[in-house]
Amino acid sequence: MSEEKSLNFLEEIIEADIAAGTHGGRVHTRFPPEPNGYLHIGHATSICLNFGLAKKYNGQCNLRFDDTNPVTEETEYVENIKNDIKWLGFTWDNELYASDYFEQLYNFAATLIGKGLAYVDDSTAEQIAATKGSTTAPGTDSPYRNRSIEENLQLFAEMRAGKYKDGEKTLRAKIDMAHPNLLLRDPLMYRIKHEHHHRTGNQWCIYPMYDFAHGQSDSIEKITHSICTLEFIHHRPLYNWFIEQLGIFPSHQYEFARRNLTYTVMSKRKLLQLVNEKHVTAWDDPRMPTISGMRRRGYPPEAIRQFCDTIGIAKRENIVDISMLEFCVRENLNKTANRFMAVLDPIKLIVTNYPEGQEEIFDVENNPEDPNGGTRKAPFSRTLWIEREDFMENPTKKFFRLGVGLKVRLKAAYIVQCEGFAKDDAGNVTEVHCTYLPESKSGNDTSGLTVKGTIHWVSAAHAKTAEVRMYDRLFRVEDPSSEDGDFKDYINPESMHVLPEVYIEPELANAREGDRIQFMRKGYFCVDKDSAPGKLIFNRTVTLKDAWAKEQKKG
Ligand code: ATP
Ligand code: MG
To answer: pLDDT of 25-50, one tens digit each?
Structure first.
């Protein structure tokens, strides 16, 4: 029996609209990224929400690039955004650009001028700011507020034609300089910017402001439910004002709370700083909260969708614990990632009674969680690599691994008993010496012994090598943006730790970029794009357990 999930507040609104037959019961959403950076996990919530609602209600979802600011926008970002949305598992119904509406937006503006509802202002940005008033005091009218319609139309056409320099004139809506909502005190509609645009080139030198582009674009596309984040709530009356005055399709704006995540920052502006100032290697650095960073780190798209679904949507701003995202990643990888043996911090184990030159090939189960996961071949021989931490010179009472006199099972192979060890001049253990019990072979164990510990290993003669990049939180504090000073002061200096040479099972040599696997007992890993033939590089996606939470408790 499946449990009915209760509706979130947007689903309630949509179902009520459908029931009332609003817009013929049609649901049409859009995801409107500004192509001024890469998408991050916050955007993923908005993507899952907009595409998810369209799907649930048999509607449509547009991908609309909100590209009205030529200074910060680039085609490279457009391509990456498309790629990320597809990778997340969503398909848009229409690929659209606000810049495609520039002509229509210009005509809308001229219509408002014609109705006496917009005017060209010669005031400087400083003068406009100084006459805005405050929450307690009304603003003052611009001296240019009462220009005639004819003069305004002519000046606006001249602005478009390039007659004026940046900042020399603006177009403002003529609403009310004493309006209690400051955003309605004659807001800017257009500004002059002699800048090259990534799509329209040098065709335009005036660009519409967000408030005069977004709602109109929604309306042109006949969007029924325009969902944005909470900081736009005070813009809604302006959104409605433009639509009403123009008498165009009545799209409606709804707000939900922006999603933030602990131990990271989410604004594109800040992420860009991390990239430009080389605190990370690129937008897709596996430590970044970007979709491309998470992909490279090995997060499966299903896990990200699961996370967005789990946290749902809220009406109030909050910060979600990153361990929830990691939980979703682990849960997914536990079911899907094949297990392999890799030794990250190696010491040698010599099976002293195993004949020199002999080898056996064991079948190892790929994934105990997946009955159809199959098996692979792992070669075994006299000299193996094991993890340094699996041996203790003076084992403590609860240490169920190797130490002189202790027995352990070598995964998928034999039970061995530790007989001794060797050290180098510096006193470091270099070799562990064991004997094996031939009758304890996995799958056919007649030894009658039970041992508490099982450890992984790689045959030294057969092992391949690889580089492993271990990642930790990018920041040392939960919410770097709310701390004193610069958020970059809180970067974790140990967010990446490289193991230049680890030993891996020979089967793993065939792994390809993007493959997601488990190194048994060590965590989930993913093949990085920096890998080259003969030189595999693995990113640690996530540990097997939430070690960080434990560390924090120990304090
Ligand atoms: P940023 O501040 O990170 O640059 P933005 O809001 O300027 O974000 P846009 O490209 O304009 O980025 O965002 C596209 C869509 O994604 C918008 O509808 C926006 O509300 C939504 N969005 C952006 N960040 C988040 C977030 N952290 N949580 C939920 N939705 C978000
Ligand atoms: Mg934005």
So the answer is: 999 999 999 999 999 999 999 999 99
Residue 546 has pLDDT above 80, yes or no: no
Q: How many other CB atoms sit within 10 Å of the CB of residue 498?
A: 9
Active-site entry in 147, 268, 295, 296: 268
Is 185 catalytic? The answer is no
Q: pLDDT digit string (tens) for 466-497? A: 999 999 999 999 999 999 999 999 999 999 99
Instruction: Please list, residue by residue across 87-102, b when 16 or more beta carbons sit within 10 angstroms of its beta carbon and e when fewer do.
Output: ebebebeeebbbbbbb
pLDDT > 70 fraction of the chain, expressed in percent and rounded:
98
Tally Cβ neighbours within 10 Å of residue 161: 10
The amino acid present at 62, given as its one-letter code, is N
Residues β-bridged to residue 348: 385, 431
| Spatial separation of the C-alpha atoms in residues 176 and 237, rounded to whole Å | 13
Per CATH, the number for 342-456 is 2.40.240.10
Q: What is the pLDDT of residues 195-229, one digit of tens each?
A: 999 999 999 999 999 999 999 999 999 999 999 99
* Whole-angstrom distance, CA of residue 271 vs CA of residue 289: 9
| Confidence tier at 317 by pLDDT (50, 70, 90) | confident
pLDDT digit string, tens, across residues 359-402: 999 999 999 999 899 999 999 999 999 999 999 999 999 999 99
**Torsional class of 56: left (φ above 0), alpha (ψ -120 to 50), beta (otherwise):** alpha
Please state the domain extents for the chain.
Answer: 9-256, 268-338+466-554, 342-456
Does residue 258 carry a catalytic annotation? yes
Please, what CATH class does the domain formed by 9-256 belong to? alpha beta
Whether the pLDDT of residue 407 is over 80: the answer is: yes
Q: Which helix (H) or strand (E) holds 120?
A: strand 118-121
Residue nearest to atom 26 of ligand 1 (CA): 42
**268-338+466-554 sits in which CATH class?**
mainly beta
- Considering the chain, what is the average pLDDT of its residues? 95
For CA atoms 157, 160, 165, 168, give the dihedral sign: positive
| The ligand 1 atom nearest the CA atom of 266 | 3
Q: 549-553 — which CB contacts under 8 Å span 24+ positions?
A: 549/323
Q: Looking at 236, 258, 401, 540, which residue is catalytic? A: 258
Question: Which residues have a Cβ under 8 Å from the Cβ of 444 and sit 6 or more positions away?
Answer: none
Give me the DSSP letters along 307-327: HHHHH---SS-EEE-HHHHHH
pLDDT of residue 506: 94
268-338+466-554 has the same fold as 9-256? no
Closest to 33 in 3D by CA, of 126, 127, 97:
97
Tokens for 62, please give them.
């547009």
Span from the CA of 86 to the centroid of ligand 2 (angstroms): 21
| Annotation says 34 is catalytic | yes
